[in-house]
Automatic annotation (TrEMBL):
It catalyses: L-threonylcarbamoyladenylate + adenosine(37) in tRNA = N(6)-L-threonylcarbamoyladenosine(37) in tRNA + AMP + H(+). Required for the formation of a threonylcarbamoyl group on adenosine at position 37 (t(6)A37) in tRNAs that read codons beginning with adenine. Is involved in the transfer of the threonylcarbamoyl moiety of threonylcarbamoyl-AMP (TC-AMP) to the N6 group of A37, together with TsaE and TsaB. TsaD likely plays a direct catalytic role in this reaction. Its cofactor is Fe(2+). This is tRNA N6-adenosine threonylcarbamoyltransferase. NCBIfam families: gcp_kae1, T6A_TsaD_YgjD. GO terms for molecular function: iron ion binding; tRNA N(6)-L-threonylcarbamoyladenine synthase activity. Fe cation binds at residues 109, 113, 300. GO terms for cellular component: cytoplasm. Binds 1 Fe(2+) ion per subunit. It holds the Pfam family TsaD. It comes from Daejeonella lutea.
């Protein structure tokens, strides 16, 4: 079957073609306009999606070397995300399905981040997935394609937010995660020590870390106005090291508690080199089998929506034309 996947939950407009479970194209149009505002502006995001969606879909179809009449179903992100952004993808998907008389498939964006693993590696069930993105930090027990249980999550900021807010404190542009990663590569992770929050169970908290970084920077800059410029690499390496250790410690706890050694990471922060290296090291130490997505399937992309759509298509799990997007959407 040929599935068209559409993703528009935040600031990336993306379209993908999946042919019999294989991703043939994955086109991502980034919205650089938000850099001027230090974060995603929802109104603006929605309008740019409207400009990008038709070209992105044309490109995905042409790169996959198919004709649009060959598409068997259209899968779209129903939520969670920004309502105005979701509305663009949802409306387009509904119109496309209606015009071509093909079924419509709703996809949960957070499930899709996890199902991105079925684009190539295909982990056996059950496995544990740490989903770390701009809006979420979850430890998920994945029992089947669409049978997932959240066993841990953040009480406040997401891991991606911790990176982005730290970057803002350090005067770096949005989104700061990739930049912190870049500077961290040249720095000493033991240069500065930031506290590890003591949160019970498998839950997380990142707001205290953010506050301690804020006060640390304030005090250091007071003593030496050039502190940031001189020590950017070491600060980034130390912050990243702490965020990664918080994530890995909870992941170890989850693996032990559920006695599962198949461990995956997903979401934008799974692109982080510190997390990828740390996970590989932990896997060696503890005998885990780990699954790390290709970079293009870590941050928002329609490939993950198309693959999730493909598995729903196999179950003939379709949705009617009266479907509406959901800003908050449980599994
Ligand atoms: P959600 O999936 O929760 O709705 P989102 O879709 O906005 O949120 P993603 O696109 O999955 O999030 O991920 C974006 C986040 O990933 C941003 O916070 C960004 O800073 C972070 N990120 C991307 N690359 C890296 C990296 N190399 N290191 C650290 N963080 C990164
Ligand atoms: Fe996402």
């Amino acid at each position: 079957a040929i599935i068209l996947g559409i993703e528009s939950s935040c600031d990336d407009t993306s379209a993908s073609i999946c042919i019999d479970g294989v991703i043939s194209s994955n086109v991502i149009a980034n919205q650089l306009v938000h850099q001027n505002f230090g974060g995603v502006v929802p109104e603006l995001a929605s309008r740019v999606h409207q400009q990008n969606i038709v070209p992105a879909i044309h490109e995905a179809i042409s790169k996959a070397k198919i004709h649009k009449n060959e598409i068997d179903a259209v899968a779209f992100t129903r939520g969670p995300g920004l309502l105005g952004s979701l509305l663009v993808g949802t409306s387009f998907a509904k119109a496309f399905a209606l015009a071509n008389s093909i079924p419509l498939i709703e996809v949960n964006h957070m499930q899709a981040h996890i199902l991105a693993h079925f684009i190539d590696a295909k982990p056996a069930f059950p496995f544990i997935c740490l989903t770390v993105s701009g809006g979420h930090t979850q430890i998920v027990l994945v029992k089947d394609y669409f049978d997932m249980e959240i066993i841990g999550q953040t009480n406040d900021d997401a891991a991606g937010e911790a990176f982005d807010k730290t970057a803002k404190i350090l005067g770096l542009p949005y989104p700061g995660g990739p930049l912190i990663d870049k500077y961290a590569k040249e720095g000493n992770p033991r240069a500065y020590k930031f506290p590890e929050p003591q949160i019970p169970g498998l839950d997380f908290s990142f707001s205290g870390l953010k506050t301690s970084i804020m006060y640390f920077v304030r005090d250091q800059v007071k003593a030496d106005p050039d502190f940031l410029e001189k020590n950017m690499n070491d600060i980034c390496a130390s912050v990243q090291d702490r965020i990664v250790s918080i994530l890995l410690n909870k992941l170890k706890k989850a693996a032990a508690q559920y006695n599962i050694k198949r461990i995956a990471i997903a979401g934008g922060v799974s692109a982080n080199s510190g997390l990828r290296n740390g996970l590989n090291q932990t896997a060696k130490d503890l005998g885990w089998e780990v699954f790390i997505p290709q970079f293009q399937y870590c941050t928002d992309n329609a490939g993950m929506i198309a693959i999730a759509g493909y598995y729903k298509y196999l179950k003939q799990d379709f949705i009617g034309q009266d479907v509406a997007p959901m800003a908050r959407m449980p599994f």
